[in-house]
Design brief:
Blueprint: E1 33-42, E2 49-59, E3 64-68, H1 75-83, E4 90-95, E5 98-99, E6 107-110, H2 122-133, H3 138-151, H4 167-179, E7 185-189, H5 197-214, E8 217-221, H6 225-231, E9 234-238, E10 245-250, H7 265-289
Parallel strand pairs: 3-8, 3-9, 6-7, 7-8
Antiparallel strand pairs: 1-2, 1-4, 4-5, 9-10
Helix pairs in contact: 2-3, 2-4, 4-5, 6-7
Bound molecules: adenosine-5'-diphosphate (ADP) and magnesium ion.
């Protein structure tokens, strides 16, 4: 099987309109992100742990780019770099040609841990960021927040506190809180991890519907292969650290998607291919960590 190890594997300008799996009626919005030879290590020089190693990648506008990789390979590190919370040691990350130098409201991040403020209602949580920045008139902001909360199915729960919401509802509140900023890029780091199986698949369907309506640039990190295939336009499979891109799989399942597509022969082949790579990486990692063990 051919691999795209450490290569800039996709022309960012590919966009959406010409590809067969795109919903023709929804034009791509959002930004292009380019990572060029990005390296990142943690720790002092004498005991440094190389996490990302000359990683290059293009993230196309309006597409759902899903990243999978072995646990600890640096997926969250990559998310932190894209969000601008961390800087690469070398290499460059640009968004629409501008180098990322820090966090910005053009990129919203949703993590697996809930970041909702526990003593604020769902509604207050959603308006909190824009209110603090003062970049929207209060009346407009409140109207927009209500609209978004209805859209994510929380119309009846606006005045509830986060702890009064189910896990799935909390994730939907987080989505509303990110979307109120109208980001060009949504970055999701295992956002549905920890939900029970039923809530998780409902969230995936719900999230996909939101994406297919808006077609923002999305970067979605997951360790769940079915979730990855169900959501992705492009599936980026990473190696163990020092981490590179092992393979980019173009997921050609049609949109709008539904769960039955995961039982197709095509989906099965994507799954087999992804699992084979991840299994090989896990075996390598096991071989390394078991060295010296009697
Ligand atoms: N702030 C940090 N300081 C030191 N080491 C870190 C830091 N953040 C992550 N790491 C290390 O980097 C590696 C990759 O972590 P992470 O990006 O969280 O992986 P993943 O999200 O793929 O599971 C791990 O070995 C982790 O211990
Ligand atoms: Mg992580």
């Amino acid at each position: 099987m051919l691999t795209n190890r450490n290569s800039i594997a996709r022309a960012a300008s590919a966009g959406g309109a010409t590809k067969s799996n795109k919903a023709a009626s929804t034009p791509a919005t959002g930004s292009t992100i380019e990572l060029t030879n990005v390296s990142k290590a943690y720790g002092e020089e004498w005991l440094s742990d190389q996490i990302l190693d000359n990683l290059s990648l293009s993230i196309a506008p309006g597409e759902m780019t899903v990243i999978v990789g072995p646990s600890g390979c640096g997926k969250s590190t990559l998310v932190n770099l894209l969000a601008g919370f961390e800087e690469p040691d070398s290499g460059k990350i640009t968004i629409d040609g501008e180098e990322i130098t820090g966090p910005g409201k053009d990129r919203m991040v949703v993590f697996q841990e809930t970041a909702l403020i526990p003593w604020q209602t769902t509604f207050e949580n959603v308006v909190f960021g824009p209110k603090l920045r003062g970049d929207m008139k209060t009346a407009d902001l409140e109207k927009e927040a209500k609209k978004l909360l209805v859209k994510v199915g929380l119309g009846e729960f606006m005045s509830k506190f986060p702890l009064q919401l189910s896990g799935g509802m909390q994730r939907r509140a987080e989505l509303a809180r990110a979307l109120i900023n109208e980001p060009k890029v949504m970055i999701m780091d295992e956002p549905f991890r920890g939900l029970d199986a039923m809530s998780r698949s409902l969230m995936q369907e719900f999230f996909l519907q939101l994406f297919e309506e808006n077609r923002r640039t999305n970067v979605f990190v997951t360790s769940e292969i079915d979730e990855a295939i169900f959501l992705a336009d492009n599936l980026i499979v990473l190696t163990n650290k020092p981490t590179k891109v092992e393979k980019i799989i173009d997921i050609k399942l049609p949109r709008p998607r539904n769960y039955s597509m995961l039982t197709s022969a095509e989906a099965f082949e994507y799954k087999r291919e992804t699992m084979a790579i991840l299994h090989e990486e896990a075996m390598k990692s096991f071989a390394n960590t078991s060295k010296g063990v009697a």
